Amino acid sequence: LKKAGKSSDPYKIESLPRFIRRMIPLTSKEMMEIPGMEEKRADIMLPGTILLDELAKIFGIEDIYITECSLRDGILDWQIENLLQAGQLAAAPPKLIL
């Protein structure tokens, strides 16, 4: 049932402070020049990276893995798992699409 996201090699948390220092002086337009940056994410990338760095320090996290799955995918997967465990949803056999 789990959605298969293409995982990456681990990303070393220790490199986040260097990335943060590089982002601090950038304008939104300059942030958009970062490969893979989405326009709707440019303004939240710096605060999100700072938050990730702080949480990693608090919890002693050294590596993170990035997947192509989104937050919505994770929430949907969690909801389905809970419904299955509670017997409120019957597991259906996978459909074959030809």
Give a structural overview.
With 98 residues, the protein is mainly alpha-helical. The chain is built from four helices and two strands, in the order E-H-H-H-E-H. It has helices at residues 16-23, 28-31, 42-59, 71-85; strands spanning 11-12, 63-64. Strands 1-2 form a two-stranded antiparallel ribbon. The model has no long low-confidence stretch (mean pLDDT 82).
Query: What's the total number of strands?
Result: 2
Order of helices and strands: EHHHEH
N-end to C-end Cα span: 20 Å
Structural class: mainly alpha
Largest sheet: 2 strands, antiparallel
* Range of helix content: 40-55%
Shape: elongated
Q: Could you name the ranges where pLDDT drops below 50 across 5 or more consecutive residues?
A: none
In DSSP terms (H or I, runs of 4 or more residues), the helix count works out at 4
DSSP strand content? under 5%
Strand order of the largest sheet: 1-2
**Mean of residue pLDDT values:** 82
Radius of gyration of CA atoms, rounded to a whole number:
18 Å
Please supply descriptive tags for the structure shown above:
98 residues; mainly alpha; two-stranded antiparallel sheet; 4 helices; 4% strand; elongated
Write a brief caption for the model.
By secondary structure, this protein is mainly α.
What secondary-structure arrangement, pairings included, does this model have?
Blueprint lengths: L10 E2 L3 H8 L4 H4 L10 H18 L3 E2 L6 H15 L13
Antiparallel strand pairs: 1-2
Helix pairs in contact: 1-3
